[in-house]
């Protein structure tokens, strides 16, 4: 089915409270002029950072939803998947990509596996193996450093230098995705800054974007970052510009939230900063590290 507006299939869970997954993705991409078609994997009362959350698993319904989309002959300019809670969900996403893939389409996989050097409780070695298979179908992946190490069967090391980080990027790219982005990198010599590193196999260029470190942790910032990045690329931005815009947006959102007496588990105050997505862009911090 033709649409005059660019359309993205977003395969994520939906939390009623706490700005994560679809409750972050839909407003961000909609504000950027992109139609979001959500394929929910589960519905939760709140994000999983909040004790006592309730969850309804939608795995058994996902294929029925997809069959209806097939009957409607929907086409997508991009496909974007995030947290997947089981082998079956990963297999469904693989089949979805295989069926709906089109030329000039972007397939983004955020391989959600863990953080801070540890895998999440639901992520077994078999799930990591399945995720390796899924990223081979992606054009772009956005792991954090923990997930990048897990996907390469490497021991986590938060103090990796730039040569080692470049090697990680290229090894992950050799597994299939043309663009690899590693988020939330802390460097021991820059305690008050964090970094995003990216490698584009097509032009063999490696990029770095820095941002000031703010001592706060909000769930959903990774979802918001990848959503802004995806929207920028769909709007025609270059990779470094998209990275810079995404980093600036998240930094602004965190700052807008940090000054309030607010339970961080509720996520960032996204609504306060959505207009920034349409403000004039001022490149600030992207840096070309290497061009082969």
Description:
Helix 1 (22-31) runs parallel beside helix 7, helix 2 runs parallel beside helix 3 (87-100) and helix 7 (221-234) packs antiparallel against helix 8. The protein is an alpha/beta fold and 292 residues long. The mean pLDDT is 93. Helix content is 36%, strand content 24%. It has a single domain, classed as UDP-N-acetylmuramoyl-L-alanine:D-glutamate ligase. A 10-stranded mixed beta sheet has the order 3-2-1-4-5-8-9-10-11-12, with helices on both faces. Strands 6-7 form a two-stranded antiparallel ribbon.
CATH architecture label name: 3-Layer(aba) Sandwich
The strand line-up of the biggest sheet is 3-2-1-4-5-8-9-10-11-12
Total of domains = 1
CATH superfamily: Ribokinase
Please write the string of helix (H) and strand (E) elements: EHEEHEHEEEHEHHEEEHHHE
Largest sheet: 10 strands, mixed
Count of DSSP H/I helices: 9
Low-pLDDT stretches:
none
Would you tell me the overall average pLDDT? 93
Please provide the count of β strands: 12
Helical residues, percent: 25-40%
What is the top-level CATH class?
Answer: Alpha Beta
What sort of overall outline do the alpha carbons produce when their principal axes are compared?
globular
Question: N- to C-terminal separation?
Answer: 41 Å
């Amino acid at each position: 089915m033709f649409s005059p507006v660019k359309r993205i299939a977003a395969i994520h869970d939906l939390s009623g409270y706490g700005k994560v997954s679809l409750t972050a993705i839909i407003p961000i991409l909609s504000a950027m002029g992109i139609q979001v078609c959500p394929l929910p994997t589960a519905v939760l009362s709140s994000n999983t950072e909040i004790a006592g959350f309730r969850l309804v698993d939608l795995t058994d319904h996902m294929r029925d939803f997809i069959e209806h989309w097939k009957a409607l002959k929907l086409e997508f300019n991009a496909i974007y998947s995030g947290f997947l809670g089981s082998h079956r969900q990963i297999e469904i996403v693989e089949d979805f990509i295989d069926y709906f893939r089109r030329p000039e389409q972007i397939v983004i996989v955020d391989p959600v596996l863990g953080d801070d050097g540890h895998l999440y409780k639901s992520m077994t070695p078999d799930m990591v193996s399945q995720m390796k298979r899924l990223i081979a179908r992606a054009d772009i992946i956005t792991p954090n450093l923990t997930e990048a190490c897990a996907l390469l069967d490497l021991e986590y090391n938060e103090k990796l230098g730039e040569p080692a980080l470049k090697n990680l990027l290229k090894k992950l790219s050799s597994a299939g995705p043309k663009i690899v982005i590693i988020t939330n990198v802390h460097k021991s010599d820059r305690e008050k800054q964090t970094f995003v590193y990216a490698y584009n196999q097509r032009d063999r260029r490696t990029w770095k974007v820095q941002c000031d470190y703010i001592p706060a942790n909000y769930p959903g910032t990774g979802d918001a970052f990848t959503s802004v990045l995806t929207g920028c690329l769909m709007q025609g931005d270059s990779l470094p510009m998209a990275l810079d815009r995404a980093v600036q947006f998240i930094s602004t959102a965190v700052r807008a939230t940090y000054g309030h007496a607010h339970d961080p588990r509720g996520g960032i105050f996204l609504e306060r900063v959505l207009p920034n997505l349409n403000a004039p862009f001022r490149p600030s911090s992207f840096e070309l590290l290497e061009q082969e």
